[in-house]
Write a structure and sequence with these properties.
By secondary structure, this protein is α/β, with parallel strands linked by helices. The chain is built from 22 helices and 26 strands.
Amino acid sequence: MEKKSQFFTTPIYYVNAKPHLGHAYTSIAADVATRFKQMDNQDTYFLTGTDEHGDKIVQAAQKENTSPKAYADQISQLFQDLLPLLHIKNNQFIRTTDVDHIKVVEAILTKIHDSGDIYFSSYEGLYCFGCERFYQERELIDGKCPDHGVAPQVIKESNYFFKMSKYQEWLIDHINTNENFIQPAQYKNEILSFLKEPLEDLCISRPKSRLTWGITLPFDEDYVTYVWFDALVNYVSALGYPDGDLFKQFWPTTRHFVAKDIIKPHGIYWPIMLKAAGIDIYEGLNVHGFWNVKGSKMSKSIGNVTDPVEVTQEFGVDPFRYFLMREMVFGLDANFTEDAIVSRINSDLANDLGNLFSRVLSMNTRYFDGKIMGTDRSLDAEYSLEPNAAKAIDDFKKAMGVCQFHKGLTSIWTFISTMNKYIDTHEPWSLAKDEAKLSTLGTVIYHLLEGLRVVSCLIYPVMPATSRKMQIALRLDVPAKGFFDLDQIFPWAQTKKEVCLDKPEILFPRIDIKKQASDSLTKKTPVKKEKAFKPALKEEITIDDFSKIDLRTGTILSAEKIEKSNKLVKLIVDLGAQTRQVIAGIGKNHTPKELVGKQVIVVANLKEAQIMGETSQGMILAASHKKRLILSGFDKEVSPGNQVK
């Protein structure tokens, strides 16, 4: 059977500043997706690179008293150097200053121009130099650019325009008929909402009287190409469009990974450019949220940009990769704090996986001098962990295939938890005291070693170095390519018998938590005991006070318990036009499984809050009844997002 092919890309990163946490996340996410598809026996190609033209590069170079090219070379190298540091295995790194890329941009511009979809016209509009684009008034917030918070300048000049409006209805139909074109679904809805308004033609040139650092238009030497029209073409120029072997193999089976702030160029400009140029449309767009640091989106201006190099030096590469993939629900925003990453390392990695690995190999050394004894087949039915492993693999495959990386890791950690409980239940230390039970002891240890083999295979996409370390310690015959395919993990009982294992090394040392008085997250607030009697009515409010509360109908899409809490549950709630993450203290009375699909009332305009390292974007209404929390709801099904009056 012919192998499937899959092409993964990051956006090409703009070289006006050095790499930060957001760049690291996108690159690691694409790397994890690539590694998973390789485990699924697919041919992959992984592209990343740098975007090097435009106003902002000129301005940044001037501040450094150097040329745009020299500046771009310097920052591009920082992005290239970051990749191996983060254990990212890309196939190609492209730069928009590459000669081959420039030739493809010129060829596509010529093709679209010759078809009549590019025309020359005068235009007056609101231009943001930070975004290097024109804005419509309806796109501004209080008259200012939504990204930079400054009022755009009115510019009047003659330029070349691309007839995007001609393809608006085609794009709407393409999005609606291709369910997975934009994922997660809330971003598909966002693009469709934008397309309800008439789509204006795109200005795709800049006069050289204003900007010279760019690709000259092949049909007018007095103009350079708009940076987005230049940058987006990298996805096909890197593959050797139109006749390259890579292009023939990997296009259009393409998934672009992007952050939510650039879905418009990727979800509107790019497919229309491809359509106009007669190139097949890419398979889909995977859109992730922002990493918030110190309570807000990372920004150089407020000084909360996190350097991934510094983080990996302090905590290690695999723990950093694990934290990013486990902490963020793909598509939603997440928070990066030192407390959160230390908590994940100590709890998930040191306590759960690291402790399990150490316990099992240490017991094998203590009880059998390191030799793997194998199983008593008559005991396998009672002691086998095979059904638990099979479920973990199945859940892992389903989640990773749709970029639900946090769920993929949760499936592994559920199996790890099962193995830790298995040890406590069967008490190998007690079995070791009775010579008549040595066969049972050998069977228990063998199934635990088999479980570790499965775990070592599954963690490979996220923690490749740890996967390798575990497999070496378990004396596994790892394929030359460095990992096991998904269909090689089973059958069960592949761990070789009679092999001797050494005493284990520590996979993840625990980190001492530094108490910082200035860090509000470390301050404990005394918990008041709940009184048995009902609370008195609160002070009266006016109808105007009540009208400030925005109550909306919501449907719970997913639910999972917050670790280290016996009552908090993380909910993803559909509010119609958007989804929200809400942390609710209802876990004692409601299991995650029974919550999914329930309709609830949400306080939609409650200020965002941090609860045990998680972002809560609202509140679920519930009533206390006989020491139970009863969710508020409706006697009939109501569409999500309706206002509750």
